[in-house]
Amino acid sequence: MRASQILALAAALPTTLAAYKGFNYGATGRDQAAFEGEFNAAKNLAGSSYTSARLYTMIQDGTTNTPISAIPAAISTKTSLLLGLWASAGDAQFANEIAALKAAVAQYGSAFTDLIAGISVGSEDIYRITPIGVSNNAGLGVGPETIINYIGQVRAVVGDKPIGHVDTYNVWTNSSQNALIAAVDWIGVDAYPYYETTKDNTIENANATFWDDYDVTVAASQGKPVWITETGWPVSGAASGKAVASVDNAKTYYDDVACHAFANNINTWWYILQDTGASPSFGLVGAGTPPPTTPLYSLAC
Ligand SMILES: *[C@@H]1O[C@H](CO)[C@@H](O)[C@H](O)[C@H]1NC(C)=O
Ligand SMILES: *[C@@H]1O[C@H](CO)[C@@H](O)[C@H](O)[C@H]1NC(C)=O
């Protein structure tokens, strides 16, 4: 293509591409129909359409390394995917994650790979080995050297896709992560003012706290894009410091944080569409299979 043609093409494109807007999805107990029910509910949610899905594993529940059924469900519902490979269960289990990723590429081809918004190698792995993660009994984690090694393995399979890592904002501001930040294409930040009990975490302060967390992550990011991979406020459950879980407060948090993220074209995967039985519960909709499409509070921005 000649330079003049490229310039003409560039001029025809919108100046900003629409950001990804999605939810986080678990894997336990879900088959393709269950994922399709969730993805369709997210798309058809009254007041706000969510068309992207963040996953934590490539592996279908109950199998060794069969690709997760969320992939055919995403293809049939035209849902983009922020894939995840679980990175805290040892090298042998990470090899199963890689095997499932390779098998999915071989089985579904470009119908699958065209839907990939990004790939996260791990989720909060480093948080779990920090003093605060250990004191919260957060579970097994790994350090940045392991994540960097795994990123190399994922690049060898899908080198043309944006590869990143998701962790908590206070992990990203720790200078021990500089080599990891250099190794990724994007940074995923998880931040929940509700849980930040060392701060004055009333709902009145929550918007400022979240954007402070985001801004310090951007400052540490070496210029890499910072995506919001998890945040939300619970509709029910116990208080956490000064944070009160309620539908009213969840709506305030959504109006302030989600609407500001969308208005600023920041890729966002909210926590969470449905959270039946959990306490605290962060779900935007109540119980039901497939999930209802009427949210517990208005999602209009
Ligand atoms: C900083 O990150 C390293 C891992 O790279 C971790 O071992 C250490 O505990 C972290 N420090 C704090 C204060 O979280
Ligand atoms: C939330 O914080 C952002 C970023 O600082 C700010 O631009 C916005 O006005 C705040 N929203 C409210 C409702 O205060």
From TrEMBL:
Taxonomy, superkingdom: Eukaryota
A GO MF term: glucan endo-1,3-beta-D-glucosidase activity
Localization, UniProt: Cell envelope
A GO term from the CC aspect: fungal-type cell wall
Catalyzed chemical reaction(s): Hydrolysis of (1->3)-beta-D-glucosidic linkages in (1->3)-beta-D-glucans
UniProt-listed PANTHER family: GLUCAN 1,3-BETA-GLUCOSIDASE (PTHR16631), GLUCAN ENDO-1,3-BETA-GLUCOSIDASE EGLC-RELATED (PTHR16631:SF13)
Protein name as catalogued: glucan endo-1,3-beta-D-glucosidase
